[in-house]
User: What shape does this take?
Amino acid sequence: MTAATFSHALAQHAARQPTKTAVIDAERRLTYGEVDLAVDELAAGLRSQGMGPGDAVTSQLPNCAESLLLCFAVDRLGAVHNPIVPVYRDREVSFIRHQAASAVFLERAEDVRALQEAGARPQPPKVDPRQPHYLLYTSGSTADPKGVLHSDHTLLAECRAQAQFHEMTDAEVFVMPSPVAHISGLLYGVLLPVLLGATSVLMPDWEPGRFLELVESEKGTFCGGATPFLQGAVEHPDLERFDVSSLRMFPCGGADVPPELIRTATERLDVRTGRGYGSTEFPSITSSAGLGESLEKRAETDGRPIGDNQVRVSDDGEIEARGPELFLGYRDVELDTGSLTHDGWFRTGDLGVLDDQGYLTVTGRLKDIVVRSGEKVSAREIEDLLHEHPKVRAVAVIAMPDERTGERACACVAARDPASLPTLEELGEFLLGRGLSKRKLPEQLEIVTELPMTASGKVKKHELKAAIEPGP
Assistant: This one.
C-alpha cells in the first residue's frame, strides 16, 4: 500500500491481478483490469468536456459500479470528486452545486457510461496528493450541509490506519449498504477495498435480508456503517437461515450506538463489532472494535485512538482531536473559524470523557442537552438506557421549552409493537430501575411511527421538535 493516490493504487492492482474481481453491483461484476481501463476511458471523457485539475465533478448516483469508476477517474484527472447522497432533493442539491461551483453534474449511471471514450490510454496528469480531491457534504441535520475538503493524503492515512487496525488483507470482501457519497460508504465501499486490492459489493438500497443474502453468496467479510445497518441485520427474523459465518467484522458508528446493540450483535452475528467515533471532517478518530477488546469496552465506550490520532477532552468537556486524516478545511472558508483550537486540535462539538486507560466515551453533543432549571442533562444518557426497554424500538430525546424550568426532556419513541405502547410512567420507572437520577427523567412522551433520519443514520432532532412544537 505504497501508492501516492488512490488511482495509483488501482493501477498497481490492475497490473498485478487484472482478473481479480474488484467490484460487484446489482447488475455486473468488474475485474481490476476492467475497472482500470474504464477509469482511463472515463477520465479521457471528462477531459474532453473540459474537466481538469481542481474542477469539481458533482454526481448523485446510487451505489453502483459507475459511482466507483467516477471516483477514481476524477482522482486520476486531479479534479475534485463531489458526490451527493441520493436522499438529497432539489434544495440541498442546488445549494451544493452552487457552493461547489460544479463543472459537471452526473445523476445517472448512463451519464457516466456515455462519457467513457474507448481508445488510447493517455498519460494521466501529475497529481498532488495533498491538494483537495474530495468534497463531501455533511448530513445537515440542523442547517445547510457543510462542504468538507479531503485529499488523497488525508484519506489514505485513514484507510491505512483502518487496514492496520483491523488487520485487513486483499482477501476481504466488503458488503456496503451505506451510500458511497457518504464518508463511511466512500471509505468502506470504494477507497479502502481498492487500496487493499480486495473486493467491494455495493448495495443500491438497504434491505437487511438482501444484505444477509450477499454476505452468504459473496462470502462477505466486512461491513461498517451506522446503527440502522447493524440493527437491521441483527434483528432480521430469519437470520438463522443465512450462513453469515464469513462475516468477521462489523464496526458501528456514525450515529448513537446503544450498548445493548453491540452485545446482541456479538452474540447473534458472531462478529467482531464495537462502537467507533468520527465525522466527515475526521473520519475515524477512535474505535473499540479492534482485536482483543473486551465486550464491556466494545459496548460501553467508543474506543481508543486509531493509528496516529490523538484525543483529549477540554476543560468544558468538548472532545478535541488531531491526526493525519483531519480534513483540509471547509468549502466555505468562513466555517473554518473556530473549528480548530489555537494549538491545532479539531473541535468536534461533541462532549465526552476519557477513562484512565485512554478509552473515549461520547456523552452527547455540546448542543444536544436539556437545560432544566439551569442544570444540564445529557440526551444521550437517557437514550442509551431507553433503548434497552422491551417496548422501545427507537428513541430520541429532545429539549422542549418549559415555562417553569426553561426546558424539559421529551422522549420521542417508536414502539416495537403498535398494539402495546409504552407510557411515560413506565419509562420513568424503568429508568429509575437502571439507576438514573429522578431529576433526569423525561417529562414528556411522544409516540412516533419512525424517527426522521439523515443519510448517515443520525436523527433529525430539529424536525422532531418542529413537528411537536405548536405553531406561532
Q: What stands out?
A: The chain has a mean pLDDT of 92.
